[in-house]
Amino acid sequence: MSATIYLRKGEGRTIKAGGAWVYDNEIDRVEGAFENGDVVALCDFDGYPMGLGFYNPVSKISFRLLSRKKDAVIDAAFIEQRVRDAWNYRKTVIDVSSCRVIFGEADFLPGIVVDKFSDVLVVESLALGIDKWKTTIVEALKKVLAEDGITIRGVYERSDAKVRQKEGMEPAKGFLGNEFDTKVEIVENGVRYFVDVKDGQKTGFFLDQKNNRAAIHKLCKGKKVLDCFTHTGSFALNAGIAGASDVLGVDASELAVEQARENAMLNGLSDIVSFECADVFDLLPDLERKGELYDVVILDPPAFTKSRASIKQAVKGYREINLRGLKLVKNGGYLCTCTCSHFMDPELFAKTIREAATGAHKRLRQVEFRTQAADHPILWAADSSYYLKFYIFQVVEDK
User: Fold this and answer.
1) Residue 340 annotated in active site
2) Three-state secondary structure call for residue 367
């Protein structure tokens, strides 16, 4: 082992509670030689061994845990076993035709995400340590998938998030290996989509809502549906496939709306599902003034906060969007609403919705509370892995 880092006395509460991170202000000293991103040993202040992981002093998250076993050997075989474990888990819990095959810390490979869209892999590497093992992880995935008869025709990297700069890395985007058509067709819940892995948001498609999209099917048959922040039409098209009579999807991105319309055509739903490019915060009051009402309103906004510092402003945004959405739901209709920010904890999100309902003079009857799909497992004590909270409510007038 090249180096050992030692915690300050009384520090390391997160990692001692089962988490995977150590912050820069928790570290007392480093003994031995290393390069940023190397695997090092972690010890408590008194020398008690706590595991092995990546060390990058440039980042505020200076240490990312790989193994709690002090004698673990971090090599290609170790990485392959982590990948194999991740794939075996997904084969058990979810449809793997398209799914997240690696989910960072929750799969004990911190700082990397890999999504599988049919026969294409999309990689997002956000930490220096794991970036050094990126090729090893991809090759291990190809090998493990091939054992189940799945041939990967291409790999694309979408490590273009600004957060890489906090690790001392520049954003990276492009083919890992041979070039291929980056417009990939997938099928989810019976809905066909074209996924743009090159220029779509994040890795191209939000797989985490798979089961939540399926959950709205029972609500939508013969109903009028409004899908806000539709992105490429995922909830709207699920409503259409489920037999809705009329669906409007809204998004502020013209590119996303164009892709959503293409997806509607792909499913033969263009007569039922329409899309509009608009700012949802502006459109909802306009619909209210026009007297529009819907049987089902779906709110799937982007994360309004990516830090604790902006949580108060985010709460205002969630409260406003839920209040406006609730006013458009018919008496006895349904509201589907969610947050994808892990900084909006379940209690705060519930409180925000409750305040919105009070402001809209509506009563809520909870139908379901859901989280992210099982291919995005929630690792207890690793708070960042639990981020999606999804409610279905029946909305009723005061009685």
Assistant:
1) yes
2) strand
Six token digits for residue 20: 């995977």
Question: pLDDT digits over 44-98, tens only?
Answer: 999 999 999 999 999 999 999 999 999 999 999 999 999 999 999 999 999 999 9
Cα atoms in the 13 Å half-sphere on the side-chain side of 396: 8
Residue 193 contacts residue 205 (beta carbons within 8 Å): yes
Helix axes 346-360, 311-326, angle to 10 degrees: 40
End-of-domain residue from the set 150, 180, 210 = 180
Percentage of the chain exceeding pLDDT 90: 91
Contact 229, 336 (CB under 8 A): no
Domain that holds residue 20: 3-67
- By CB neighbour count within 10 A (0-12 exposed, 13-18 middle, 19+ buried), where does 217 fall? middle
| Catalytic residue (one of 43, 99, 336, 340) | 340
Per the structure block, which two tokens stand in for 182? 């980056």
Give me the sign of the Cα torsion angle 128, 130, 136, 142: negative
Q: Where are the beta strands (DSSP E) in 44-85?
A: 49-55, 61-67
Calculate mean pLDDT across residues 327-337: 98
CA-based nearest residue to 128, from 142, 113, 112, 139: 112
- For 383, other C-beta atoms within 10 Å of its C-beta total 16
Tell me how far apart the alpha carbons of residues 306 and 387 are, in angstroms, rounded to a whole number: 11
Residues 152 and 57 in one domain: no
Dihedral angle at the C-alpha atoms of 284, 286, 291, 295, nearest 10 degrees?
A: -20
Alpha-carbon torsion, ordered 382, 315, 363, 334, to 10 deg: -70
pLDDT by residue (tens digit) across 151-186?
999 999 999 999 999 999 999 999 999 999 999 999
Nearest to 320 by CA among 293, 296, 353: 353
Which uninterrupted H or E stretch holds 374? Answer: none
Q: Nearest Cα to 84, choosing from 42, 44, 140?
A: 140
Q: Are residues 258 and 361 in the same domain?
A: yes
* pTM, entire model: 0.94
